[in-house]
Amino acid sequence: MRFLEMSAVFSDLNDGVLRAVARRMRSVNLRARDTLRLGGEGGDVVVFLESGQVEVSITDGTGRVLLTRRPVAGDIVILPAPRTDARYVTSLYGLTDAVLLTLDRDGLLEGLGPNVEEVAVTLDKLWEQELAAAAAIEAQRASEIGAPIVAFFSAKGGAGTTTLAINTAAALARTFPRQVLLIDLAAPFGHAVLFADLIATGSVVSASKAAAADFEAAIRGNIVNHRSGMGVLPGTLRPEEVDTLTGELTGRVLDTVVRWHKLVVVDVGTSLSEASLAAIERAESLVVVVPPEIAAMTDARRALAIFRDIMNVPDNRIELVLNQRSPHPPLDRAAVESILGRKMSVVVGFDDSRPEDSTLAGGLVMQHDPSSAVSRGTAEIAKVILASLKLDGQQ
Fold first, then answer.
1. What is the pTM of this model?
2. Total count of domains within the chain
């Protein structure tokens, strides 16, 4: 029950269904140095690591290893979707004596009842994310370059920062497929994974619990990959983890991920927490999102003063983006530029409910409506970032 409640696949089900599923799970012992192989046809469809240490590897039909992970207790092992059957095999190798909790197809059907379709769709999504992760790792192997960091910030909540950050990251991934990472530090309630219609399986905080030697592998394992070609790494999965998201941990993560990406985008939201400041200090481009509202001007001026006078962020590293979130804003572009004493790099027009409609439809607005104001605006932000960082797009 505890593992099911913690899993992104089962957590939304009611207690009665969870108990029915839990009763049908069985405990399997895996001895050290033994290997358990799981294909896509028949057999178990859900496997949790209860205790011990294992290494999970996914191989294709030729036996080539596509992906390896070292899950921690409570993690779910993602198995091939039925439609991919014989093409892939998941193997679990016992690093120590380990105990697995498994559930076969019949048990899943009986335990879930009418909820089976919902869970089956989620399991399929997780498998698609695993294949995307394998493809991303393949693309990143030659990217030991030290990626520049781009931070998105707004002094006011509700400015649309996450919407712009995640759509801009997807736009950048058109230039660098599978080599752009978005880190969501907009604590305590980051929404990047939700907006991208992905399923979070881990976070920066959960990776910090791994042994030092396994930290990079844990970070890689917690990145979920979007079909646009970008990866998304949540900072936290639960609000109570915020205090664990320190500046030191953020710096450690950035040191790790810049080695195998072309660009790292960090959504810090409205936070000036220790973690956010660590990202802003290292950012080679700081995108400040400003809504054309009177109250937001004071906050934006204060934030810009902090960046300039206390953090010594050069003006040429700051890009101001005016995001018109209402059809009749109280301030126009000229007024905002006059108040802030700076020119806007990009103006994003009012887009009505298109970003929210796209989220409900299961994707990003730039994919569902490429001609929308937000899609055009984020494409322009991506161009500004590439120009300021002098990235020519050659891979």
1. 0.75
2. 2
